[in-house]
């Protein structure tokens, strides 16, 4: 009788273990790899804000950032930082070609009018134009342009 009780308990433990393995261990576990990031890459905000004359006689002040591709190296010092880095002007960050990027942005914004920065459609057009010029004129691997803190006067 004791042998049968031990046998029944052993069978119950094995069965419970099998059910646990089948149901719990086989359940899909959410992983970070399955969740798509809303912003892929890194966001690089140009430190110094822009103050530009618009084509219609008004002024715009804004902060500009770039969403950089994950393989972008424009903010990584050459040779791992083992070389002498030139002194950058005040307000410039770690981006090696930031002066050219700023020139592209300033040139594009100078041809804009106030509604280009005050409407969604206008901002999309400006962002697309800036992104195209950055890709054409620099080695920066920008994926998107971010316009933040926009003020038109």
From TrEMBL:
Task: List the Pfam families.
Answer: FliL
**Keyword Transmembrane attached:** yes
As for family, the record states: Belongs to the FliL family.
Q: Which UniProt keywords apply?
A: Cell membrane, Cell projection, Chemotaxis, Cilium, Flagellar rotation, Flagellum, Membrane, Transmembrane, Transmembrane helix
- Transmembrane ranges, per UniProt, are none
InterPro entries, alphabetically?
FliL
What protein name applies here? Flagellar protein FliL
Cellular component annotations (GO), alphabetically ordered: bacterial-type flagellum basal body; plasma membrane
What exactly does this protein do? Controls the rotational direction of flagella during chemotaxis.
Q: In Gene Ontology terms, what is a biological process of this protein?
A: chemotaxis
Tell where it localizes: Cell membrane
Q: How does it sit in the membrane?
A: Single-pass membrane protein
């Amino acid at each position: 009788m004791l042998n049968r009780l031990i046998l029944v308990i052993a069978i119950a433990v094995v069965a419970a273990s099998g059910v646990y393995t089948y149901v719990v261990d086989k359940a899909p576990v959410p992983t970070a790899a399955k969740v798509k990031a809303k912003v892929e890459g890194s966001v690089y905000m140009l430190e110094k804000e822009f103050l530009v004359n618009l084509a219609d006689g008004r002024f715009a002040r804004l902060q500009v950032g770039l969403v950089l591709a994950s393989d972008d190296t424009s903010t990584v010092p050459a040779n791992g930082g083992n070389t002498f880095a030139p002194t950058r002007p005040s307000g410039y960050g770690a981006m090696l070609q930031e002066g050219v990027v700023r020139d592209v942005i300033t040139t594009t914004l100078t041809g804009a009018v106030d509604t280009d920065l005050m409407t969604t459609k206008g901002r999309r057009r400006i962002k697309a134009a800036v992104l195209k010029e950055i890709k054409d004129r620099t080695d920066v691997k920008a994926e998107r342009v971010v316009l933040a803190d926009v003020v038109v006067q």
